[in-house]
Amino acid sequence: MAHNTEKSYQDHLCDIYHGEEFGVVMFQTAADITKDKQVKEKLLVLKRLEEEVIRLLTPLAEKHGIAKASGSYLSRAKQTGQALGTNDWKKELKKMAKLVDGCIADYAAAVPLAPPEDQERIRFAVAHEGVIGQFIAKELAGQDEPLSPVTDFIAALHNIPPYSG
Ligand SMILES: [Fe+2]
């Protein structure tokens, strides 16, 4: 996005929330379609991360009146998921790494606009994109336990205090 500074906090929150809904559908679609069992397991862990971020952001979305993503938006997520589950895994991961970098910049722009009670959760939303980036780097490098940053992060999310907005 070229005009982050012109977006309101509500606009950012809407984009972030919908982005995570997109991620759930994309990873689930890819997991359903891939023929590689190991890739499928990884995709399902990534989907769980997206679900956890949605859970984190839902009270914020409700407070700020954010609607669920539209069907046409989510049908694009299905198309992206089909490509992710069908095409060369490493090539797709390299594409995803670029998207993740863009998301980090977009999501981070929401932090200074967020009300104090939302800031920690928005920071976690920013951080989870970095965690996906760490997974991609480890996976592309062929390292052991590439998902460990993701599973550690999911555990950390469960320690966040209840939302008091
Ligand atoms: Fe995400």
The assigned structural class equals mainly alpha
The rough form would be described as globular
Domain module tally: 1
Distance between the termini: 28 Å
| CATH second-level architecture | Up-down Bundle
Radius of gyration over alpha carbons? 16 Å
Q: CATH fold name, please?
A: Ferritin
The portion of residues forming beta strands comes to under 5%
Overall CATH class: Mainly Alpha
Stretches where pLDDT is under 50 for at least 5 consecutive residues are none
Helix content: over 70%
* Tally of contiguous helical segments: 6
Largest beta-sheet characterization: none
pLDDT average, as an integer?
95
**Heterogens:** fe (ii) ion
The arrangement of helices and strands along the chain is: HHHHHH
Number of strands: 0
CATH superfamily: Ferritin, core subunit, four-helix bundle
Protein topology:
Elements: H1 9-33, H2 37-63, H3 71-86, H4 89-108, H5 116-140, H6 148-157
Bound molecules: fe (ii) ion.
Fe (ii) ion binds at residues 20, 23, 50, 53, 128.
Explain what the structure shows.
The chain is mainly α and 165 residues long. The relative contact order is 0.16. It has 6 helices and no strands. Helix 2 runs parallel beside helix 6, helix 4 (89-108) packs antiparallel against helix 5 and helix 5 (116-140) packs antiparallel against helix 6. It is globular and about 45 Å long. The chain has one domain (4-157): Ferritin, core subunit, four-helix bundle (Ferritin, Up-down Bundle), CATH 1.20.1260.10. 75% of the residues lie in helices and 0% in strands.
